[in-house]
Amino acid sequence: MHLNEFEKFLRSVDLIGYREKYRPIKIVEMDLPKEIQAINLLYKVYWSKKEFLSFDKFYGQYLKEYGADIKKFQEKTGMCENCFSKGLPARIYRTWASIITQIHAGYVAESVFGEGTVAMSGELDHRGADFQVIYKGEILNYQVKKKSFSGEVRRGKGGVKTKIKGEFIDINYEVPSSDYFENPKKKDGKYKLPYKRFQNNKELKRFSNGFVVFTPYAFERKKKEIDKFLK
Q1: 34: buried, middle or exposed (CB in 10 Å: 19+, 13-18, 0-12)?
Q2: With CB atoms counted within 10 Å of each terminal CB, which end of the chain scores lower, N or C?
Q3: Gap between the Cα atoms of 209 and 19, Å rounded
Q4: What are the extents of the domains in the chain?
Q5: Separation of alpha carbons 13 and 134, rounded Å
Q6: Residue 28 to residue 137: CA distance in whole angstroms
Q7: What is the per-residue pLDDT for 231?
Q8: pTM of the full predicted structure?
Q9: Is the dihedral of CA 25, 29, 35, 40 positive or negative?
Q10: Which residues have CB under 8 Å from 85's CB, separation 6+?
Q11: Could you tell me the pLDDT band of residue 155, with boundaries at 50, 70 and 90?
């Protein structure tokens, strides 16, 4: 049920509009102190409370909860208030888009392993797991590995894998640029390789607004493996 609601929410996001608005803005690119990072609030809103807010509403809540600390940090950086206020939503949007994709993966995993099998939090994230599945006594720590088609890893927490119990499993999030979906064929009529690779990837699917998300296939094989072993 939650998966269907969350997918309906993701399909409603004006992803192209947000990208055009925020992609050129890279003013606030320094490391943010823990006190104003959005990650804990993202898990609280979209996972724990199941409130599927638009980015604008989420950002309003973020400012409300962290406003005082945000102001302190802005003053500490010496950046002008207008510049900081312009750059911060662009920075938070990039985190938002990344984490809600990850949270969707948690909902997909829950639809496969069963209600109550998935845990997700800022603490787990800090300790190396984007989300954790506990199924038939087995602990599975999933990490979403975002890669370009050149193989470059864009996100990962490989250095902290020993901090929690369980098996670590990487699920690869490889997405060609939107250009390949708008113009998938070469001049000779054949499909371009990145588009073809994506279409053949059973673990990922793309919504019409451009959101790319994981499918149940990414988790079904592991469930079958455990079911077979514990028969």
Answers
A1: exposed
A2: C
A3: 12
A4: 2-105, 116-229
A5: 31
A6: 43
A7: 65
A8: 0.90
A9: positive
A10: none
A11: very low
